[in-house]
Amino acid sequence: MVPEKYRKYDIIDAHAHIFPEKIAENATVNIGHFYDLPMNSTGMSSKLIESGSKIGVKKYLVCSTATSPRQTASINSFIAKECAEHPEFIGFGTTHPDSEDLDADIAQIKELGLKGMKLHPDFQKFNADSPEAFRIYERIEGELPLLIHCGDHRYDFSAPRRIAAINDNFPKLKLLAAHLGGYQRWDEAQQCLPGRENVRFDVSSSLAFISPEMAAHMVRKYGVENCFFGSDFPMWSHEEEIERFLALGFTEEENRRILAENFCDFLELR
Ligand SMILES: [Zn+2]
To answer: Could you tell me the distance, in angstroms and rounded to a whole number, from the CA of residue 11 to the centre of ligand 1?
Structure first.
């Protein structure tokens, strides 16, 4: 039974990862090593739903990133298959800047009915504002929203200023800047990302690292209407992340927007 404090909200998880069962264990362990963080669960659809059900999540944006170009087609097929089996999933496909045929990758994403694209410059090892990456953005601008990992103090691939450069060059690209626009680069994110049309933010994998006051300040700076709730599952459980989110002290109306309505507006889900 979902506790009353969550039941009053329609909750959408705007950032979750799933992997095929065969590799889910390894993929999850590898991400844990990459970030040097303990993972809450294993990135499988069944586990995702089990975790989200505890707080009554109604929909999940699910994605997975290709660390080499040849994985792209099978990852996209996998995400589409999971979406067919789980109507509560909204699938985002992926590609890779080194892909030999970006047009084919993007055509596949559209044919499969996936709703957007996910890129992770740090895993995929490309600068988010490089000419190779621009070849992707110019093809999806106005067509597919892009969820992009942002920030890491150890790497510069996805630095917030590079995310800002994407928006400068592709103002019509709907950009979802993960982790409040810059995991571990919170100051840089606040300097260069507020006030940009077509840029939205999720609060996933952020709230455990900064104070509630600072997180609330960042959300207000970006605009409550521009921010989405997300778990970054399997990194965190939904219960952990919703508790951290509710501790930010937004009004019920603001919570409603961040937990679901803003995301529906962005993806035109209703
Ligand atoms: Zn992610």
So the answer is: 18
